[in-house]
Amino acid sequence: MLVPLYEAVHQRLDVGPETRLLALGCGSGLALVMAASRGAALTGVEPSSPARLALARERLLPDRPDGPHNGGTHPRTGIRLTDRLPADRPDPRTPAHTLVTAFEPIGRVAGDAEALTALLTAATPLARRGAPVVLTGWGPPERCATTAVLRVAARLAEQDRGTVRLRPALRDDLEEVAQRAGLRPDGSGRVACPFGYADLDSALKGLLSTGLFDAAVTATDQAQVEKELTEALHPYRRPDGTVWMPNVFRYLIARTP
User: Beta strands 20-24 and 80-82: pairing type?
Assistant: First the structure.
């Protein structure tokens, strides 16, 4: 769903063969695949989801069955995928990273800004001086149809005080993270990223896979969450059965000191 965001950032920053990309929270590797198609050298870090890291390896390193803790560089492609931030550059003979991205949007889960700040603080010394660092977040709630659906997750999760709390997106989330991480803001943009699904079942599977509803499932149960999600999705169902939710995401370009 965030492909338009990835494309906009790659185009604006002219990602290409001269780019040495460090992707924080690379997830299942889709943005890395797109950067690789433009010729960039890649290091992807996915610390929170072994399953997503495994999928990224299938996409980018299909001929190398290394475990998730192996942070070595692929000898042929130069791609490096790991579950922890590298303690060094991808190869001591190569220059520092020229671009850092954090494409996992913040602005929905309590503590996500603080976690990103800590990750950026540790990562920026691996980039060259003045390198762009891209932070992303959800757009204004009134511009995101998915906001209404996520209210279901927040309301149900409130029944279990021990679970992850959701929060509303704030206007200056990205700027505050950049400031705390010692980065200098240098431009921003907004990108339309509609969430479109072939049918209701696909919408339920897609939304539940984001992890934003995990707390709600823990607090109640899967059937209850799916029932209330189905009701919340009703306004976004089209006559042909497809589900379409317009959203806007925001990105900030900051620079390393």
Answer: unpaired
